[in-house]
Amino acid sequence: MESINVSELVERLGSDEDPVRKMAVFKLQTSIADPSFADVFILEGGLSKLRYLVLNTTGNTLAYSLTSFSRLLEVDKGWDCIDQDVVERMVELVVTHPLVNILRGAMSNLASIVSHPSAATDQLSQSDTFGFRALKPAIAIYPQFLERLVTRLSAADHALCGNALQLINSLMREAITNDTESDWPKLIRRLQDLGVIEAVYGLMQSTALQDLSQPLLEYQTLTKVLLRKWRDVPIILEKPEHRRALKSIHAASKTERPATPVDSGDEDPKKKPNPEKWRRLGFETENPALDFEETGYLGMIDLTEYVNKYHDTFQRQIAEQSSSSTAHKCPLARVSLAVTAILLETFEVDKADVDDAKFQLAYDSKQNFDKIFRPLLLQWSVLHNAGLQAFFRLWRTTDAETEDFFKIFDLVRILFESVAGTATRTKDLKDVQREIAEYELSKLRETQMQIMELTYEGNWRRQLSQIKDELSHEALQFVKEQRIRCLLAGAWFPINSKPDESSNGATSHTNTFRYAKLSHNRRYLHYSDFDMRGEADPSLEGLSEKIDLSAVTSVTSNVSASRGPSARSSVETLKTSQQRPATNTRISIHGHASGSGPNPTSQSDSRNGSRLGHTHQRKHSHQQKETTLLILHPQTQALASEWLDGLLMLLNQQPITNDTSKLINMIRDYGLKIRLLNVRFDEMGMNGPGEGPEMPSREGLDEDFYYDDFGG
């Protein structure tokens, strides 16, 4: 600043020669951003000369003047010279001028003028010189202003796009936050009709995001604020606009009929009003305003747009519900409002604030772009329609009834969180629509249970741990009984034995079969060998051999044991493993032979089992001899798991096979899910800390009662 003589610079700004003024204002634009320089510049009378240049020059002189003026306003100086002439000049340039550097300067100045009330004094904020009100007279002269402004969003120059969007943001912010502005919805809808949403949506998904991150993120925040503002507008039937919207919804639900004297305009005085005029459309009562309490005017906008845009689908759905039974009717109006509420939650609309400066920090890192930018927010009406159709699809798929409404609501909420809530910045809208339309109910149920478990575990970690332990024990006892019942039912096992030489000298093996069955008192394992497998299973009396299970000391096998915690079980994995053939599978039962004497090497006969797989032994005396009592060869993996783990459980030992472990885990998990589904939120204390169930009143009761302890 010391190298510039401010007095001389101001004098040159007032020169009659354009080259002199151009050079002076060129130097000015690099120094005026210094507040101390700006103060001296204004004291020297430079402000009026700069204003003259903005109003009367062209070319580069005008471009430099606009830049200087913009930087002066940025340091909160020079507001005294802002009047309707200056505003009209800026609007004229935006509409008529082709040069990028002039357009950028004009838009930057208008953005500052429109935004000024947010930082100005109360006196200034009431003035028509600033804010959106300041632009109205100029826009009346140049009505194509907003259209040209939106068109600039598709310009090749990214800086120009940024300036245009910044001005649009300023207009939106001032209109939304100015409570005295009665027609702010007109401005918003005018911008939307001109295509601002589509233009910004394209910029958010483009590679230009790096250059436009700040204005784009501000537009995203303002969109949330706008949605919340519409939601907070209550529906008042006395308002003409609200009444017209409801009438249009009702009128759209009527199918065309041949004209009658009544239809042609005259009201039939004898015709009684429909007692279910609004409930027929899916409202809960005949006062539709009550249904909009949660979503406000935003819910009405979404429902009205759906009715108008998808008129044929709307009429078909109304007709379908009219022909359905009362219990199975899907209330269309409630569904539309529910989807609106889901979208508000999915995009976290309540977390946005028009004055929130957090976004100032977020856009610095390019790596955060996919996290902070959510272009799907701008496709609100498209997602609303997709959500409404998904709601109807799930309603039909589950054969839901009226009382199931909130269950379907929860599924659709999870659906949107899974698809729209996790969508990347560049994900195509058609892909999102297709995923919502084709998302399987089974996947939704699985996701629902996972979320429920995580939610409850966060609130009830200790209680859930106890429940899981209880369910694990119950599942183990259940599977133990099931495995032992398999032994009680009996099974056939093949035996490869005795080579047989045929007449031509070839050698083959004859297959014999062994049938084994547990006695009813579970104390003996009966078995016999047969030359062939009979059509009917033999009875216990037909089995000549038996083993006293009290004499069994160990069971060995080469059946694969489970290793570490098994993964989450499923019916499909169980079926797959059970259908696998168990080739060369062997189960050996070891124990004390009848009348055997002491033998210090009691473990010698179990050496084959130790080599083949896992040996599981009872504690027994080292003075008795152990021998192999029986060998079984299961033909399938399922049979091997049933008999090996069944025998181990009879010996009060833990099961070891993967199939049994998966079955236990599956039963435990299903038991946990059933218990979670039966837990109401009020039972979890989620209505508020320290709140318990309401105590029943004893009003009207006497003391004539008795108590009997049936538990003894």
Describe this structure in words.
This protein is an alpha+beta fold and 712 residues long. It folds into three domains: 226 residues, Alpha Horseshoe (Leucine-rich Repeat Variant), CATH 1.25.10.10; 179 residues, no CATH class; 178 residues, Pleckstrin-homology domain (PH domain)/Phosphotyrosine-binding domain (PTB) (PH-domain like). Helix content is 52%, strand content 8%. The strands form two sheets. A four-stranded antiparallel beta sheet has the order 1-2-3-4. A four-stranded antiparallel beta sheet has the order 7-5-6-8. A hairpin with a 5-residue loop joins strand 1 and strand 2. Helix 6 packs across helix 9 and helix 25 crosses helix 29. The C terminus is likely disordered.
Blueprint of the fold:
Blueprint: H1 6-13, H2 18-31, H3 35-43, H4 46-56, H5 59-74, H6 84-96, H7 100-115, H8 122-125, H9 132-141, H10 145-151, H11 158-177, H12 184-193, H13 196-205, H14 209-231, H15 240-252, H16 296-309, H17 311-323, H18 332-346, H19 359-362, H20 369-372, H21 380-397, H22 405-419, H23 429-438, H24 441-459, H25 461-489, E1 491-501, E2 507-518, E3 524-530, E4 545-548, E5 552-557, H26 571-578, E6 587-592, H27 607-612, E7 614-617, E8 626-632, H28 637-650, H29 658-677
Antiparallel strand pairs: 1-2, 2-3, 3-4, 5-6, 5-7, 6-8
Summarize the structure.
The protein is α+β, with helices and mostly antiparallel strands. The chain has helices spanning 6-13, 18-31, 35-43, 46-56, 59-74, 84-96, 100-115, 122-125, 132-141, 145-151, 158-177, 184-193, 196-205, 209-231, 240-252, 296-309, 311-323, 332-346, 359-362, 369-372, 380-397, 405-419, 429-438, 441-459, 461-489, 571-578, 607-612, 637-650, 658-677; strands at 491-501, 507-518, 524-530, 545-548, 552-557, 587-592, 614-617, 626-632. It is 52% helix and 8% strand.
